[in-house]
Amino acid sequence: MSQNKPDDRVQKPDDAGYWKATQKLTFTAVGIWAFFSFFIHFFAPALNGISIPILKFPLGYYMAAQGSLIVFVVLIFWFCNKQEQIDRDFGVDED
Q1: Where is 24: in which H helix or E strand?
Q2: Is 13 inside a domain boundary?
Q3: How many CB atoms lie within 10 A of CB 64?
Q4: pLDDT more than 90, % of the chain
Q5: Structurally, how many domains does the chain consist of?
Q6: Is the pLDDT of residue 38 over 80?
Q7: What residues have CB less than 8 Å from 65, skipping those under 6 apart?
C-alpha cells in the first residue's frame, strides 16, 4: 500500500504552461504597479504645470494622489479576473 506524498507527485505537462502564464501575469501586474508607484510620482512636479480644467487641480497632484489609487484598485480586479481565466484555461479553477 503506497501513499502518495506531495513530493511523489509527477508534474503534468500543463503545469509548466500554467506557471508560465501565472508568472507573466504577475510580472505584468508588478510592472504596472511600479510604473504608477514610482514613475508617475517622479514626474509629478513637472506635471504640476498642467491643470485639470474642471477641477483646477494640478495634474501632478491628481496623478500622484488620486490617479495612482484608482489604477491600483482597477489593477486588483483586473489581476483577479485574469488569474481566474488562466485557472479555467488550465483546469485548476474552483467550483
Answers
A1: helix 13-34
A2: no
A3: 20
A4: 41
A5: 1
A6: yes
A7: none
Q: Could you tell me which of 42, 62, 40, 66 has the C-alpha nearest to residue 50?
A: 62
Cβ of 90: how many Cβ atoms within 10 Å?
Answer: 16
**Residue 81 falls inside a structural domain:** yes
pTM of the model: 0.71
Beta-strand ranges (E) seen in the chain are none
On whether residue 74 sits in a domain, the answer given is yes
Please, what is the angle between helix 13-34 and helix 68-89, to 10°? 170
The total of other beta-carbon atoms located within 10 Å of residue 87's CB is 15
Q: Is the pLDDT of residue 71 over 70?
A: yes
Give me 5's grid cell.
506524498
62, 52 Cβ separation under 8 angstroms: yes
Instruction: Return the exposure string of 18-57: e unless at least 16 CB atoms fall within 10 Å of the residue's CB, then b.
Output: beebeeebeeebeebbeebeeebeeebeebbeeeeeeeee
Q: Which residues pair with 58 in a beta bridge?
A: 51
C-alpha cell at 7: 513530493
